Amino acid sequence: ELIDQGAAEFIAGLRKGTQSQAYRGSAAPLSRVSIGATPTTSFRFIDLFAGIGGFRRGLETVGGSCVFTSEIDVDCQETYALNFGGEHLFGDLTAIDTPDFPEHDILTAGFPCQPFSR
């Protein structure tokens, strides 16, 4: 329906991200519409089990800066990359050494929805 209305576009041939490496897909971030002043960055956060970026959307709205994201589902990685770009987007969390996590003020972790969404 959104495609028919011209509000969304299907992009064929997006490359899937890998589960244990940084996202290397071809998805480019979408243009965003500004709705008011952009807050200055006041804290850094990590977005684990990120899904398509619900926590990130909310935290950026109040001045947060995402410094690391992990999402194992390759379809979610594609959507996340379209929404926010692929920088700092990684796959399988268990393949990343703890010392490699950047400094952060807040750590978010999404609810494991795979049993409900598949």
How would the blueprint of this fold be written?
Blueprint: E1 43-48, H1 54-61, E2 64-70, H2 74-84, E3 89-90, E4 106-109, H3 114-117
Parallel strand pairs: 1-2, 1-4, 2-3
Could you explain the architecture of this structure?
This protein is of the alpha/beta class. It has three helices and four strands. α1 (54-61) links the parallel β1 and β2.
> Which overall shape is indicated by the principal axes computed on the Cα atoms?
globular
Taken in chain order, the helices and strands follow as EHEHEEH
Specify the helix fraction band.
10-25%
Structural class: alpha/beta
Distance between the termini: 22 Å
Approximate strand percentage: 15-25%
The strands making up the biggest β-sheet line up spatially as: 3-2-1-4
What is the alpha-carbon Rg in Å? 15 Å
Beta-strand segment tally:
4
Largest beta sheet, briefly? 4 strands, parallel
Average pLDDT reading: 75
**Unreliable residue runs:** 13-20, 28-35
Please give the count of helices: 3
